[in-house]
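Please decode residue identities from the backbone states below.
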């Protein structure tokens, strides 16, 4: 059995690579005091809009030892979702790249469960919980602390070698693993993401006013889209990739190798006129296992009608 903290770190990173993760980093489980203060300020300014869940479980969200009692280490992982061939946007409406294929939550959780089972056979029994964007975990902060990348001006985690088109995941465990440290912020004086955002949602370095964000409006917001978004949607009907697409570091993005993230043929063939005539039946067929099902048929239809009436008459 392997118990040495440094050997455990090496084992985890080599195993994660075999399971398809781009990178793996380790942090000591505990409180993120600075991030807690920033989150508190964020909530006070109502930048979370209707994402009320962000205010829930504040102590657990900012201290992993309260979320997972007895935890000693946070294992952060990145899983690539950059497509080899982005869906053609000519005569089409736009969907965020992360939602092209099947729902990443269950796919990555399944991979992590298999990985943990293998590790148990090598390390022995250990306690852990797996998280994939589904619990009060400050994912970007932990990925930053473990040296996987830095948080850019657009509040996304960015890596020097492959940009930012990654899903983040965590294993919080009672294993004592040698921690890594954060790396330098390489955004420099670049402001491309700030200048490209059509709704001016990036209000300051690393701070996005969620209530102004197109991704928030098309996914999280349950009410009618505000007038402030009129003429600014740039044909995004689910999510938005603008602040990532313009980031210079994403010129290094490499195609993923996960077949379940590939879009269906029918999704790639639909055009603007088809989206305008979208039915519940077609929605259910195309998005049955997709992250897009989160907005439901009524929500996507609302987005499409808003765009076609206000953006592309």
């Amino acid at each position: 059995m392997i118990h040495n903290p440094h050997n455990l770190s090496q084992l985890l990173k080599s195993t994660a690579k075999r399971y398809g993760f781009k990178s793996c980093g380790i942090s000591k489980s505990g409180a993120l005091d600075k991030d807690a203060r920033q989150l508190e300020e964020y909530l006070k300014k109502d930048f979370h809009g209707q994402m009320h869940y962000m205010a829930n479980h504040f102590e657990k969200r900012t201290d992993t030892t309260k979320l997972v009692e007895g935890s000693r280490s946070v294992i952060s992982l990145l899983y690539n979702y950059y497509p080899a061939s982005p869906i053609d946007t000519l005569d089409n409406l736009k969907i965020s790249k992360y939602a092209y294929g099947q729902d990443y939550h269950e796919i990555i959780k399944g991979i992590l469960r298999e990985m943990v089972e293998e590790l148990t056979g090598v390390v022995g029994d250990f306690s852990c919980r797996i998280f994939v964007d589904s619990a009060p975990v400050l994912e970007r902060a932990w990925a930053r602390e473990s040296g996987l990348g830095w948080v850019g001006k657009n509040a996304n985690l960015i890596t020097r070698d492959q940009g930012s088109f990654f899903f983040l995941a965590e294993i919080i465990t009672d294993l004592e693993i040698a921690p890594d440290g954060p790396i330098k912020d390489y955004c420099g004086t670049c402001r491309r993401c700030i200048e490209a955002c059509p709704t001016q949602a990036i209000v300051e370095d690393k701070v996005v006013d969620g209530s102004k964000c197109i991704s928030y409006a098309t996914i999280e917001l349950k009410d009618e889209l505000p007038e402030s978004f009129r003429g600014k949607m740039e044909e995004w009907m689910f999510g938005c990739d603008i602040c990532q697409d313009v980031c210079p570091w994403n010129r290094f993005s490499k195609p993923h190798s996960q077949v379940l993230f590939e879009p269906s043929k029918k999704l790639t063939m639909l055009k603007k006129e088809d989206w305008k005539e979208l039915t519940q039946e077609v929605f259910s067929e195309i998005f049955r296992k997709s992250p897009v099902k989160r907005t439901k048929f009524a929500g996507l239809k609302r987005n499409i009608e808003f765009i076609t009436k206000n953006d592309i008459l």
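Observation: The mean pLDDT is 95.
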